[in-house]
Amino acid sequence: MNALAIHLVLALLPAAGPELALVEEGEPRCSVVVPDDASETVGRAAEELVAYVERISGATLPVVPEGKAAPRGQGRKRIDVGHTRASLAGLPEGFLDEEERVLIRSVPDGLLISGGGDRGTLFAVYRFLELLGCRWLAPGAENEVVPKRATPTVGHVDVDTRPAFEWRLFNGRSSEELESWGMKMGMNGLYSPEAAPRNGNAYYYPEAVPGVHTYAKIIPPSRYMKEHPEWYPLLDGKRVPGELHGKQLCVTAEGLADEFAANVIRIFDEDPACSLTSISPNDGYGWCECPKCEALDQKLCGARTTEQGLNRARRFRGDRVFWFAGEVARRVAEKHPDKKLLVLAYVNYAEPPDTVRPLPNVVPFLCHYAPADYSRPINDPASEANRQFNDSLVRWAAITPELLMYSYVSKSQWWRLPRPVVWNFAADVQYFHSLGIRRYYCQSSLSDWPLDGPLYYVIARLLWDPSADPRRIADEWTEAMFGPAATEVKAFYAAVDAAARKTGQPYAGNPRTQIPGLFDPELMDAALAAIERAERAAIDEPFQARVAEVARTFRYGYWMVRAMDAYARYRDEFDADAYESALAHGRKALEYCNVPKAADYVEGWETSSRMIREMGVPAMGFGEAETKGGRTCWNSDETGPGDNAHGWATFVIRTPDASRPVVVEIDVWGTSRLNSIVVNTGPGVWTPVRPNAVLSRKEQWDTLVYEIPPAAMDPDRKSQKLGFGGSDSQVWIAEIRVREP
Q1: Cα distances (Å, whole numbers) of residue 247 to 242, 271, 317, 540, 586
Q2: Dihedrals φ, ψ of 142, to 5°?
Q3: How confident is the model at residue 312 (pLDDT cuts 50, 70, 90)?
Q4: Beta strand pairing status for 439-442 and 167-169?
Q5: Per-residue pLDDT tens digits for 85-143
Q6: CB 3.0–4.6 Å: which of 280, 295, 372, 658 could bond 508 by disulfide?
Q7: Which domains does the chain have, with CATH numbers?
Q8: Alpha-carbon dihedral of residues 27, 29, 33, 39, nearest 10 degrees?
Q9: Distance between the two ends of the chain, CA-based, in angstroms?
């Protein structure tokens, strides 16, 4: 049992006084007393208390402003909610200085329920309702636990607690349902500006800049490009508008920092309640190459490179990013010294800057993304990716107390496939706390509980009390969520977790390459058997519906994992039976959940099946079949017109003996743009091979012949992946043949 739960249980022991009946056999025995000038948030706290007591008992407690309430000791018992005069008289010294500190205390004629601020009062009501047995297991009324008792009572209560993490953030702005659940679990953002009056002004992004990648939002090219092209990056000798992805700003340009800061100041002027905004680079790369920006890099960090988590060494941009953040932050602080400016530490600016130090109003937002291994805790030295990340993390924690952790609690890139990370992420939260980090953000809506189980519930609890036992928290959640089926669901979660741990294979966010071989097949079968037993045990609602959702989600994942394993066998061993299994398993998976990215992948297999028959080799990433010169063909469609969504076009050839050269003949439409093919033998390793002749540049079919030397191939594989990368590959292929020299 976690420390907060123990405290709450001890608070209910009757030794210190008689029980307080809120309701007795359907009749109210208490009044809810609120301050005469109660804020909207305190009003919500009182509403929630009344609503849940009514759901428990069927009785409605009256809500009375303190000025109209009967004096203490007369009439009904009182439950004072918020800063009434009576509660203020009983608060500990310094209590009001802590916005989210929670006090629930028995007094002779009732209860005091208060927070240091209005948001704390709302949290205090939810903690009191937990004393009555309420639980909020996942968003939605169908996932709440509300006990039924005609006479709900509490013994002596004395709870005085506070959250361990100052910021406890997630993607909660998208719906009222998510905001409601997040507040009940004690998360204090990120919500919407509209919800602020009712949640004690919990953290939110300003409406003008509702996200993290903000250069293009704060300096939009539609507004500034015409008059100030010099504010946008110089790339290949041209000034390019800084859109959301892949283009940054010319941070050394005259006047840019002034205008950037002025726009940020305007955001806070127009919404004084807003306490933070992001001033982070756009997603991707596209860094300005002008002489002044390059000279800045040289001055600050020697224009060094970084390789952490990247598929190749890239110029390190951390000092440039945080130097510009400092230029903006210094100007903003003159008008709004208390506002916080978030700056991502991400991709090739994830490491701490070499010389620049963030100003006090700058919050580095460190992403556990590149490098990352979610199969192990961050401080597990067995993981090279996490060893690299942990090195950056420890250095960041030593540099600034403002650090905010960006945790990929939910990973949309993972296609809703099994992702057993609950114990690793729980260990990470506890580790962050040990480093002195007090801010945590989940990239997650916290809503996909059928996939992730107790993960979100565990994290929310640990952010209040990192000393708690995550396994006990998970057991509480599972037992409440699944009732009579809980034992079998626990066995299911344990089997999925063990299936990944047994292989020891790392994974981050690329299911195409990381799913094959990740899960032990026998343990996945055991997981499927366990969830089938759970379905039989859950005969009543709401447990039956909850188990059914978990089972449906897992069956999709189970069959998609089998499909991807089979496809990997086909790719590596050229096993035609494995290819047919991949197709069959993929189709079956999509009957349970139609996940778009997974559906696209399976559709690619369907296309590849036809291409095997007609082109002669398995291929991925080509466009739709066309006809040229009387022959069916496919376009590689990489970086030119069309830009096929599947990505780079590749094909696979069989090489039982990679110590010997192999000849590849490709029938290519004569006007194609092709001078070489590339052989892929590892992440980012593409070896070009040129043909024995060039294309005719005529409207006819030509045959290009490539001799692939052993040095270009992976000697440990029976097949090799080749593609058309490295050029604007508008290439039409009719047939590919493989032979010995």
Answers
A1: 5, 29, 13, 55, 37
A2: -70, -15
A3: confident
A4: parallel
A5: 989 998 999 999 999 999 999 999 999 999 999 999 999 999 999 999 999 999 999 99
A6: 372
A7: 3-162 (3.30.379.10), 176-488 (3.20.20), 489-612 (no CATH), 615-739 (2.60.120.260)
A8: -40
A9: 70
Q: What type of residue is 440?
A: Y
Question: For residue 144, which of 174, 185, 107 has the smallest C-alpha distance?
Answer: 185
Angle between helices 40-57 and 118-131 (to 10 degrees): 10
Q: Using the structure block, give the residue that is written with the tokens 């800063």.
A: 83
- CA nearest to 364, candidates 383, 380, 342: 342
Helix (H, G, I), strand (E, B) or coil at 709: coil
d(Cα 460, Cα 442) in Å, to the nearest integer?
A: 10
Q: What residue type is assigned to position 489 of the chain?
A: V
Q: Distance between CA atoms of 263 and 279, rounded to whole angstroms?
A: 11
Is pTM beyond 0.85 here?
A: yes
Amino acid 444 reads S
Contact 439, 165 (CB under 8 A): yes
Contact 70, 118 (CB under 8 A): no
Q: Which amino acid is at 513?
A: T
Tell me the HSE value of 170 on the side-chain side, using a 13 A CA sphere. 24
Q: Which residue has the tokens 């890239």?
A: 314
**String of b and e for 557-577 (b: at least 16 CB within 10 Å)?**
bbbbbbbbbbbbbbbeebeee
Residues 707, 741 contacting (CB under 8 angstroms): yes
With CA atoms as reference, report the closest residue to 124 among 57, 42, 191, 34: 42
Segment (H or E) for 101: none
Q: Token match 């070499």: residue? A: 354
Q: For residues 130 and 522, what is the distance between their CA atoms, to the nearest angstrom?
A: 40
- The predicted pLDDT at position 12 comes to 39
Q: Angle, nearest 10°, between helix axes 470-482 and 543-573?
A: 120
Length in residues, the chain: 741
* SS3 at position 331: helix
